[in-house]
Write a structure and sequence with these properties.
By secondary structure, the chain is an alpha/beta fold. It is built from five helices and nine strands. Helix 2 crosses helix 3.
Length: 240
């Protein structure tokens, strides 16, 4: 392992306006890993050193015991099944997992939690009325002593926002701890209490966001920490 670059599986499915799958791959490469495109790939989790769950459309609410609401735009059911199975296998093998936006919601559902299907305010959604579909921005309060609090060396950070669904404290999965919360009570970051390195963030740390020059350099630390965990694997648990 010390002489090789960690192989990081990166999920993707549908194309989302204003977002680039290449952003995820580039952040992995910059941090010292090799990105493995998992679109349409049947792969053993034991061939990977870490997993990134990416953004996308909504998870089928029936997977957490609800009927679809008016504003829910369900992704392909195959994606839900594939990613829930994939992240479950990754956690069983104790691989590092970085779950981003929809990915953080997949992580929560996979571990037994639920979602708020639609956030009434538009403060969290991308601005789809403006050319380029820019992100909206808000603060996130980080729990003292949490992994992200130590990583960013801050009690509060400003993040981009491109989602209309989210996790609430009352819907967070058993075994996940809310470590970042927006001013309106949406869980913006969660860490597993059961695994070596499993982190979900509701924002998009992979984006360049050139109009907010502080953001990308700060978020590189998240990818560096994730790759660092992937490079320092303990003896593998063999699982399919």
């Amino acid at each position: 392992m010390p002489d090789s670059r960690p192989r990081i599986g990166v999920t993707r499915w549908e194309d989302i306006p204003g977002e680039r799958i290449e952003d995820y791959w580039e952040r992995v490469e910059e941090a010292g890993g090799d990105a493995v495109d998992l679109r349409g790939v049947d792969i053993s989790i034991t061939s990977l050193d870490g997993l990134i769950l990416t953004g996308g459309l909504d998870i089928d609410p029936q997977r957490y015991g609800q009927e679809p609401g008016e504003w829910t735009k369900i992704a392909e059911s195959e994606r839900d099944e594939y990613e829930i199975g994939l992240v479950t296998a990754a956690m069983d093998a104790d691989l590092p997992v970085l779950a981003i936006c929809r990915g953080s919601q997949v992580l929560n559902v996979a571990m037994g939690g639920g979602l708020l299907q639609n956030i009434e305010s538009s403060n969290h959604r991308a601005d789809y009325k403006t050319e380029g579909y820019p992100s909206r921005w808000h603060d996130v309060r980080l729990e003292a002593g949490s992994r992200l609090n130590k990583l960013f060396e801050a009690d509060e950070i400003q993040v981009n926002s491109r989602h209309h669904q989210g996790v609430l404290r009352e819907t967070i999965a058993p075994g996940l701890r809310a470590v970042g919360v927006s001013p309106d009570g949406i869980v913006e970051a969660a860490e597993s209490e059961k695994h070596r390195w499993v982190v979900g963030v509701q924002w998009h740390p992979e984006r360049a966001e050139t109009e907010h020059p502080h953001f990308a350099p700060q978020q590189r630390a998240l990818f560096s920490a994730f790759l660092g965990a992937a490079k320092s694997q303990p003896e593998r648990v063999q699982t399919a």
